[in-house]
Design brief:
Blueprint lengths: L11 E2 L9 H7 L19 E7 L2 E7 L14 E4 L3 E5 L4 E3 L6 E10 L4 E12 L7 E11 L8 E8 L5 E3 L2 E5 L4 E11 L6 E3 L5 E5 L7 E4 L16 E3 L7 E4 L7 E2 L4 E14 L15 E13 L5 E6 L3 E6 L4 E12 L8 E13 L2 E4 L1 E4 L2 E4 L2 E11 L10
Parallel strand pairs: 1-7, 10-28
Antiparallel strand pairs: 2-3, 3-5, 4-29, 5-15, 6-14, 7-13, 8-11, 8-12, 8-14, 8-15, 9-10, 9-13, 16-29, 17-26, 18-25, 19-25, 20-24, 20-26, 20-29, 21-22, 21-23, 21-25, 27-28
Length: 405
């Protein structure tokens, strides 16, 4: 089943809010006191907490992490503070999505951004077939932002699979969005039900959009080479295939050009995320004519971030546990999310440079295609991507924090 050209679709907004709630809004709504939102490396948060408030047709949660709180007392040494918190937007009720919708916005918000400012967009949708008699449908979930003047998003991140009878499917696309120009942007979580005569129900308990509360200074992203929906390696399309009869049976994704990321000078930890979209090349129109007869493909993979020595050789690595996944002929599209929440930045490596990659190995079955980026005149979408952000900082002098007294 071919991918859809989503950039031409008109999405139906379910809920739309203006910018994130202020600290005063959250305090007035509930249980956080004696706190400050930080908008960069100047403020700290007092307590580990999660506060949710209702705002129009969307539930908003502000999640903040534990930090070493700065103090005016002398002689306390170094102080830690986190990178930007994540603001969570969730639909308040079930949302039924029909193919006739052409696509539907599940939740979204408007954010004012400066040119070059980056925010993490983390999406998740859990959906089930709306009727147990339905046989299944092609489900697609995407996150992105577009300028309020109508300028399309430079990139949307999409995940795709087949939704079959049973307990449902969770898809979790993520992307580091960087504003190409200053202005107000609408950031969103969308989904598509792409099979006539079927419908799916999005369940709010496991569905949300998270957005950085402030700029992710110094963050960096990567994406796989362009690969069109049909899987043809023509023109600018350079699809990656793994398995029998292909060039490789294993490869490192996302580090094609060896581009390194440099951690901030006072960062102590980093956080990395990635998504890989795969297609098993059975009887499908998505593999450039390649068709095999196995019932699917089995792959083993992990996300790894490596800190480099001054000469560019590896110094220390952090990776997720290896995971093994089976991609069946149904659904034939399959998405794997990865997360490294804590990457320690060492001062003993001689550099603060890092490389990120997803190691992907074919184990058995049909060859697999790695779905990549697909640019076009109206923006584009990315199906395999990763990013890294500074997640914790240290300072050697006290930061003033209002003590609430």
């Amino acid at each position: 089943m071919a991918w859809l050209d989503r950039t031409k679709r008109a999405f139906i907004p379910l809920s739309r809010t203006r910018a994130s709630p202020s600290a005063a809004d959250v305090v007035a709504a509930g249980d956080i006191v004696d706190m400050a939102f930080h908008a960069g490396p100047t403020l700290a948060v007092r307590f580990w907490n999660r506060t949710c408030i209702g705002l129009l047709a969307v539930v908003i949660c502000v999640i903040v992490g534990p930090v070493g709180v700065a103090s005016a007392f002398p002689g306390l040494g170094a102080y830690n503070y986190p990178g930007p918190a994540l603001v969570t937007y969730a639909p308040p009720t079930n949302v039924v999505v029909f193919p006739s919708d052409g696509g539907r916005e599940i939740v979204g918000t408007d954010v004012a951004l400066q040119a070059g400012e980056s925010r993490r967009l983390l999406g998740q949708v859990h959906a089930v077939l709306s009727d147990p008699s339905f046989t299944g449908l092609d489900e697609q979930v995407g996150v992105g932002c577009h300028h309020d003047d109508g300028t399309p998003s430079p990139w949307e991140a999409w995940s795709d699979t087949s939704l079959l009878p049973g307990p449902g499917v969770t898809l979790s696309p993520s992307v580091l969005f960087t504003a190409p120009s200053a202005g107000m942007y609408h950031c969103y979580l969308k989904t598509i039900a792409d099979t006539k005569g079927q419908a799916m129900t999005v369940q709010p308990s496991d569905t949300w959009l998270q957005i950085s509360a402030a700029a992710e200074e110094g963050a960096q992203s990567w994406s796989n080479p362009p690969c069109d929906s049909a899987g043809d390696s023509l023109g600018s399309s350079r699809c990656v295939y793994l398995g029998p009869g292909e060039k490789d049976r294993a490869t490192d994704l996302l580090d094609e050009n060896g581009v390194a990321w440099t951690a901030a000078g006072n960062a102590t930890t980093a956080e990395a995320m990635a998504n890989v979209e795969l297609t098993t090349c059975g009887h499908t129109a998505s593999c450039g004519g390649l068709k095999r007869d196995a019932p699917g493909s089995t792959v083993t993979s992990y996300l790894e971030v490596t800190q480099l020595n001054a000469d560019g050789t590896p110094c220390a690595g952090t990776k997720t546990p290896a995971r093994t996944d089976f991609i069946g002929d149904i659904p034939h599209h399959y998405n794997i999310p990865y997360h490294l929440p804590t990457i320690t930045i060492l001062n003993t490596c001689g550099s603060r440079n890092f490389q990120l990659h997803v190691h992907m190995a074919w184990d058995s079955g049909n060859p697999v295609k790695i779905d990549g980026a697909r640019p076009d005149d109206d923006g584009g979408e990315v199906n395999t991507d990763g990013f890294i952000v500074n997640s914790n900082y240290v300072v050697s002098t006290a930061l003033p924090v209002t003590d609430g007294g």
